[in-house]
Specification:
The complex is a heterodimer of chains A (421) and B (479).
Chain A (H helix, E strand, L loop, with lengths): L1 H7 L5 H24 L12 H13 L40 H11 L6 H18 L8 H19 L4 H15 L7 H34 L4 E6 L3 H12 L4 E7 L6 H11 L3 E5 L3 H4 L5 E5 L2 E2 L5 E4 L2 H10 L4 E4 L28 E2 L2 E2 L17 E4 L6 E4 L2 E3 L4 H11 L1
Parallel strand pairs in A: 1-2, 1-4, 2-3, 4-7, 7-11
Antiparallel strand pairs in A: 5-6, 6-10, 8-9, 11-12
Helix pairs in contact in A: 4-5, 4-6, 5-7, 5-8, 7-8, 8-9, 9-10
Chain B lengths: L2 E7 L7 H4 L8 E2 L2 E2 L2 H10 L3 E7 H9 L10 E7 L7 H7 L7 E6 L2 E3 L3 H10 L4 E7 L21 E5 L6 E6 L11 H6 L4 E3 L2 E9 L1 H9 L6 H12 L3 H4 L1 H9 L6 H9 L4 H10 L20 E6 L4 E3 L3 H10 L14 E2 L4 E2 L4 E2 L4 E2 L4 E3 L2 E2 L4 E2 L4 E3 L2 E2 L4 E2 L4 E3 L2 E2 L4 E2 L4 E3 L2 E2 L4 E2 L9 E2 L35
Parallel strand pairs in B: 1-4, 1-6, 4-5, 8-13, 15-18, 16-19, 17-20, 18-21, 19-22, 20-23, 21-24, 22-25, 23-26, 24-27, 25-28, 26-29, 27-30, 29-31
Antiparallel strand pairs in B: 2-3, 6-12, 7-14, 8-12, 9-10, 9-11
Classes of the chains: A alpha/beta (421), B alpha/beta (479).
């Protein structure tokens, strides 16, 4: 701007100097605004920065929550993420009749870290159930307002759950919703009334965003399933399982191929539930994918979150399935409820991911565990990733409760959702 | 509040009457601390702030008045007294305090000495929403010779059969040899759900249980159950697999049959909680299952679940027999950091005190004594030239010069005369051993009025002074 002004005004004059000064100020102000608008990186992806770790430790100490220490050697590309061991639960640092953290939150944290509650929908429902218990047992201290104090009470619980297992995008959205509802409670509302209102809000959220959304998605998805289809699913997605069971009940004739991968082997549970209904299934590991794909007519995938640039964040291996399906020209349909839409933007799986316990990769066959002393081998690192992102070019359609949209329309849905709220 | 701690300290110590006829079991000194201190210390370390202690009036009186019994715990102790002659079992005691129980309970026995990580037991209770969670440990052979027993006699105790599943955490089967007629009988329904069961026999039950509040309410309605370990735990373990707890249809009918005094019905209703549909929805959407290979849901749809944590290493003793008491005295000092020799003890320089001995407060140890692998109690006087090896000396004992005590237990306020040579004996409370006596492998306790030994007589050979003219096989004169 300064150079343009200098060029435009032919001779020195007071207007010239004034213009230069104004343009200099504007660049400085723009610089400040730029710094304000750019968001700081979240703490859980900056574990290799000691200042951030110290800040986190101080925050946890203030909230009286123990700090969970990282475990084992981290592969250098992922050293900015946390890696915890399942054998060192956070509860061994807590006192047993937990007074700082509500018992149902401690139970929930344990269930998360041990994998008893796994899957995006299950985790959100369990979180909301625990929050209902917290709200029921809450009493407003004197001289405090429920709308402010309850939100402050929930903050240490959320830090605790984050330490047990990093929060998922769906959980983050649910927490945002609850915080908004709590802050919107008018101050003259009596405590009992406020609590019942909050409990009904939570019930309504679950009913609308999870249960009814699943029904709506099944309705749309069943239109896409025709008789004689061979459908490929990956791992365990509660939504996709729901769709297939409903389609089977509506007497569509199809068969399912379940693709599974180590170390979680979640496909076994998906397989069990489908076979229990009577659907004929085939089970393969992901290494046999290109062998089995020529038989497949459609691929149904579940999602952990849908990012604002149209990328699909899902269990590790999903992007591989989508890539190979694209090469074989098999349509890929992603099913996702709108409450899992997230405003984050990511183009690779490195920046923000979750590192699971590396000891899960060890397998014992005939009494021998080959990787038993992997920590002693200096050039060996075990990496157990949980999520990966799939680019929108590999996804043909996203089925949500608002309808069937292309992947690139996700920002539109987010904008509409924000306007609603 | 999440858990309430209940400490059962009303037991009589029926298997070690030689020690407990005078001192109640919770106050027996182990490593110079009362036995009840150990479970209280365990609870305090873990973070409990209040404990309900169920005990007898005698113990309560001694705790509040006797200066030697100092409990040194910062927690609030809520002492509940029960009548000594009421013959109450542990479950009866729980029923007695049902009004005080507001949440799930952690029941501990007063004779438990352990350094177990309690969070393992409680985590099983929390994570799986279990009805019962307990602690067990691999039993260790007792290596010390027990006084009064000829050689190492294997106790003919009934074995416990404990069946766990493949992970080693879920409790499937529990029975005592005394209850089984010919063999171990396992129902087919259990085998169908858990085809791989590991049955273990060498386990010590630590008598530490996490119970849901609904179990305590159930006990209040079912007065026939009187012991937690003997009746309640096997009942709950069996109930996991009974048909009525698994079918959801039965629950709807039972809501209408509330008036019926059926014990099955009551436990069922009490287990279900509010927001049952949300929990059900979570389980439905979650991809976790506790077993593989059959078509059933997680936990086989069962609502009652019992878990056990089996400790591989670490200290875990139940001090309910003499052998356990002696073993515990050897190992208890490892559990606390106090110095072996109490600062207020007067120990002369020319005595030899081994590193693994403990000297209590206000003791007087004179010259030329040798104390090895022993525990000396509070206010005990040991005169010159005494050799104490492998023994337990309780409070207020006087040992005159020249004695040689080996492998023995000397109870409180006893007096050992000059030059006595005591090997592998148990001397009862306030007994007197005459000088130069040589008891060997005997148990001396009142009311044997003539139990004072004459010089150079062994109690085994001359028994003319005794009212009973014969000894029983334990070399005890039971007058």
């Amino acid at each position: 701007g300064t150079s343009v002004v200098v060029y435009m005004v032919p001779q020195y004059s007071s207007i010239h100097i004034a213009a230069v000064v104004v343009s200099m100020f504007s660049t400085i102000i723009c610089g400040f605004l730029f710094l304000l608008v750019v968001k700081r990186l979240p703490e859980h992806v900056q574990v290799d920065d000691p200042a951030v770790v110290k800040r986190l430790a101080k925050k946890l100490e203030r909230q009286q929550i123990p700090l969970r220490s990282d475990y084992g050697y981290k592969v250098s590309l992922f050293s900015h993420l946390h890696q915890y061991s399942r054998k060192a639960p956070l509860t061994q640092l807590l006192s047993i009749p937990s007074t700082v953290i509500h018992p149902s939150i401690v139970r929930l944290g344990l269930q998360y870290s041990q994998g008893i509650v796994a899957g995006s929908n299950a985790r959100s429902v369990a979180l909301l159930h625990a929050f209902k218990q917290v709200i029921r047992d809450y009493t407003t201290p004197p001289n405090e307002e429920l709308s402010r104090d309850l939100v402050n009470k929930l903050k240490p619980y959320i830090s605790f759950l984050n330490q047990c297992r990093p929060l998922s995008a769906s959980m983050g959205n649910a927490i945002k919703y609850i915080k908004k509802e709590i802050s919107n409670i008018p101050s003259q509302c009596k405590e009992e009334e406020a609590k019942t209102k909050l409990l009904t809000c939570i019930d309504r959220y679950i009913e609308e965003k999870i249960v009814l959304a699943a029904k709506a998605i099944s309705k749309y998805a069943i239109e896409k399933i025709s008789d004689g289809d061979v459908i490929l699913v990956y791992g365990y997605s509660s939504l996709v399982n729901n769709i297939l069971c409903e389609a089977f009940e509506k007497s569509r004739k199809f068969r399912v191929i379940v693709v599974d991968s180590r170390p979680r082997l979640e496909g076994r549970e998906a397989l069990r539930r489908l076979v229990q209904r009577g659907i004929s299934c085939t089970y393969v590991l992901i290494s046999a994918l290109s062998y089995i794909l020529p038989e497949v007519s459609k691929v149904f995938l579940g999602a952990h979150a849908l990012l604002a640039n149209g990328y699909v964040m899902s269990r590790v291996g999903t992007s591989q399935i989508a890539l190979v399906a694209r090469t074989y020209n098999v349509p890929v349909l992603v099913c996702c409820e709108t409450y899992k839409f997230c405003e984050r933007v990511q183009t690779d799986s490195f920046v923000s991911n979750e590192l699971d316990d590396p000891d899960d990769l060890m397998v014992t066959r005939k009494g021998k565990t080959q990787l038993e002393n992997w920590q002693d081998v200096s050039s060996l690192g075990l990496l157990n990733l949980v999520y990966d992102v799939t680019p929108p070019d590999f996804v043909d359609l996203v089925i949500t409760d608002l309808g069937m949209i292309p992947c690139t329309s996700v920002p539109v849905v987010l904008r509409v959702k924000n306007l609603d709220q | 509040m999440e858990l309430q701690a209940v400490l059962m300290a009303a037991g009589g110590g029926s298997r070690m009457m030689d020690l407990t006829y005078n001192t109640p079991k919770p106050l027996l000194p182990v490593g110079n601390k009362p036995l009840i201190w150990y479970p209280l210390n365990l609870l305090e370390r873990v973070g409990f702030e209040e404990v309900i202690v169920i005990t007898t009036k005698e113990v309560q009186k001694m705790i509040s008045t006797d200066p030697k019994v100092k409990l040194d715990v910062k927690m609030k102790l809520d002492l509940v007294c029960i009548q000594e002659d009421a013959d109450m079992g542990t479950a009866d005691a729980l029923r007695h305090i049902q009004q005080k129980v507001k949440t799930d309970v952690l029941v501990v026995s007063c004779d438990l000495i352990t350094d177990a990580a309690l969070h393992e037991v409680v985590d099983l209770f929390r994570a799986h929403n279990a009805t019962l969670s307990m602690l067990m440990s691999k039993a260790h052979e007792f290596t010390e010779t027990v006084p009064g027993q000829k050689g190492k006699k294997k106790t003919g105790e009934q074995r416990d059969f404990v069946g766990v599943d493949g992970t080693g955490k879920r409790l499937l089967f529990m029975a005592n040899e005394a209850d089984l007629d010919e063999g171990v009988v396992i129902r087919k329904s259990i085998m169908r759900k858990h085809p791989r069961m590991h049955i273990k026999t060498g386990l010590v039950d630590a008598h530490l249980y996490c119970l849901k509040k609904s179990v305590v309410d159930f006990l209040a309605d079912n007065k026939s159950i009187s012991s937690i370990r003997g009746e309640l735990v096997p009942y709950l373990v069996r109930k996991q697999f009974s048909k009525s707890t698994n079918s959801p249809k039965v629950i709807d009918e039972t809501h209408q049959n509330l008036k019926k005094n059926d014990s099955n019905v009551n436990l069922e209703i009490q287990i279900s909680s509010r927001d049952e549909e949300l929990l059900h929805l979570t389980q439905e959407r979650s991809c976790w299952n506790d077993h593989r290979g059959d078509m059933s849901d997680a936990y086989h749809g069962g609502r009652l679940r019992c878990y056990v944590h089996i400790m591989d290493e670490g200290i875990c003793y139940r001090v309910n027999t003499l052998a356990a008491y002696i073993e515990a005295n050897r190992l208890a000092p490892k559990l606390f950091d106090e110095p072996a020799v109490h600062p207020s003890a007067v120990v002369s320089e020319r005595c030899l005190i081994g590193a693994d001995s403990i000297i209590g407060a206000s003791c007087q140890i004179s010259d030329k004594t040798s104390i090895k692998r022993s525990t000396i109690g509070v206010s005990t006087t040991v005169r010159e030239k005494v050799k104490v090896t492998n023994s337990i000396i309780m409070h207020g004992v006087t040992i005159e010069e020249g004695c040689n005590i080996q492998g023995s237990v000397i109870c409180s306020n006893a007096v050992i005369g000059r030059g006595a040579d005591i090997k592998y004996c148990l001397v009862g409370s306030a007994q007197r051993i005459e000088p130069d006596a040589l008891p060997f492998e005997t148990l001396l306790r009142p009311p044997c009025l003539r139990s004072t030994l004459t010089p150079t007589s062994t109690h085994r050979s001359t028994h003319t002074q005794c009212l009973f003219k014969q000894l029983n096989r334990n070399n005890t004169c039971l007058c």
